[in-house]
Design brief:
The complex is a heterodimer of chains A (174) and B (269). Chain A contains four helices and four strands; from the N terminus they run H-H-E-E-H-H-E-E. Chain A has 174 residues and is an alpha+beta fold. In chain A, strands 2-1-3-4 form a four-stranded antiparallel beta sheet. The longest helix of chain A is centred in the N-terminal third of the chain and has 22 residues. The radius of gyration of chain A is 22 Å and the shape is elongated. By secondary structure, chain B is an all-alpha fold. Chain B contains 14 helices and no strands. In chain B, helix 1 runs antiparallel to helix 4. The chains are: A alpha+beta (174), B mainly alpha (269).
Chain lengths: 174, 269
């Protein structure tokens, strides 16, 4: 009985490995993404998603900019909230903020990508919009009567630092 | 020939180190995941799917639940490092697998998380095989981890080589020249004449040829795996991927086991 069970497990492992290999060369469906995230049949494409080809801007640095405005008068200067400066070497051993930062960045990128497609632009009720708005409000803590606006910009690495505005939010009061 | 028990023990210990580091990092960052914060579950549960509607998941992804998961993973990791192989080892690996899966689903699981989950699954089968004296289960476990590692390297290389931007070096130049994915040293390296091109082809060829390394005698396979570990360590330093090298290192004992088994099965020694 144990032998039969073990052989079934072995057959299942072989099947999953063949499936994993096959999945490396197909575009992943939403169901496929679940299998990937559960590490059942993961896609192992490190920096090699098909959509990067011919799109060097895929690797652009993302900047989340925020400004506040008093009840009456000119808005204040833009402040950068998600700044990627020089990464310290010890982040290669200890980097606890990696996941929280990645999740925020993913929402910021979703906003920028959605805005590129006029049919898909993010509404203020979208999760990515709400997440970024809450992040900005948490960090800036605007006072009573103050309003806040955020923007997503991209720059091309260390050499081509020319910023490009990708998203501009409405004004929000806390 | 390295004995199976030695290799499985090494898998458990290395996975345990990953668990300890992963848990410590989660504990250190817990305040950012609190309810009411931008990535608190009260907001992030609006994501589509059953996960967002589950009351059990909401408890687990609350502040206390997350702390409990991280502490549990740390304790299990410590036990896997400290305890010898025994009947309790499969249970420890099963708990670690579930906790790693839950923590991974709370964020965006990266390659290191996925490899760690695979190592836990493979290790579970191997330790069950040892406990029940069943060689087929040991083979299944080593095949799962070693096979996924081999596919990971091969697919990483093959998926790059089909892209013109990788073949020309434009993709690594853009990635490693950015602030998000690179550092000052990597940016300098990829902007040297031919630097990005040479790096791209070295990485692609090494990754695609990895499956052949499984047929090498064990000491040479060890050398190849050592080179890959240094590659992961360099990536971790450049990109700040702290758990990445140890997650892949934990899969290497299974690759060695698989290499020994393949050589024996094919009459190479």
């Amino acid at each position: 009985m144990l032998d039969l069970l073990a052989q079934t497990v072995l057959a299942l492992v072989c099947l999953l490995l063949v499936w994993t290999l096959f999945r490396q060369f197909v575009v992943s469906s939403p169901a496929g993404m679940v299998l990937d995230q559960l590490a059942i049949a993961p896609q192992w494409k490190f920096f090699a998603q098909t959509r990067i080809d011919g799109h060097a801007e895929f690797f652009d640095d993302i900047h989340l900019l925020v400004r506040t405005s008093p009840e009456a008068g000119k808005p204040n200067d833009w402040v950068e909230l998600l700044h990627y400066g020089e990464r310290p070497l010890w982040h290669g051993i200890w980097n606890p903020r990696r996941y929280s930062r990645s999740l925020i960045v993913q929402h910021v990128m979703t906003l920028a990508l959605a805005e590129d497609d006029p049919e898909q632009s993010a509404r203020p009720s979208a999760l990515c919009y709400l997440t970024v708005l809450r992040f900005a409000l948490d960090r800036m803590m605007p006072g009573p009567g103050e309003a806040l606006q955020f923007s997503v910009a991209t720059t091309g690495g260390r050499i081509g630092r020319e910023p490009k505005v990708r998203f501009l939010s409405a004004w929000h009061c806390p | 020939m390295i004995p199976t028990e030695t290799l499985v023990r090494a898998t458990c210990a290395l996975f345990g180190v990953w668990g300890l580091l992963h848990a410590a990092q989660w504990l250190a960052d817990l305040p950012r995941w609190r309810v009411g914060s931008a990535i608190g579950w009260d907001l992030q549960r609006l994501r589509k799917g059953i996960k967002g509607r589950s009351a059990l998941v909401a408890v687990l992804y609350g502040e206390r639940g997350m702390a409990l998961l991280a502490v549990l993973l740390g304790l299990v990791g410590l036990a896997l490092v400290a305890l010898p192989l025994g009947p309790v080892t499969p249970l420890l690996l099963a708990v670690a697998l579930v906790v790693a899966l839950l923590l991974g689903q709370r964020s965006i699981p990266d390659g290191a998380d996925k490899m760690a989950m695979i190592v836990a699954g493979g290790g579970l089968l191997q330790t069950l095989g040892l406990a029940l004296n069943n060689a087929t289960l040991v083979l299944a476990g080593a095949l799962w981890t070693g096979g996924q590692l081999t596919i990971a390297y091969f697919a990483a290389g093959a998926s790059k080589v089909i892209l013109a931007d990788w073949r020309s070096g434009a993709a690594p130049r853009a990635a490693l020249g950015s602030y998000m994915w690179g550092n000052r040293l990597s940016a300098w390296g990829v902007n040297l004449p031919g630097g990005a091109f040479a790096l791209a082809w070295t990485v692609m060829l090494l990754e695609m040829l990895f499956p052949l390394a499984l047929l090498l005698p064990t000491p040479w396979l060890g050398v190849v795996l050592g080179c890959f570990f240094l590659f992961h360590a360099a990536i971790a330093l450049v990109m700040g991927l702290s758990t990445y090298p140890i997650a892949f290192l934990a899969a290497y004992p299974s690759a060695i086991w698989l290499g020994q088994w393949l050589r024996a099965a094919s009459g190479l020694g």
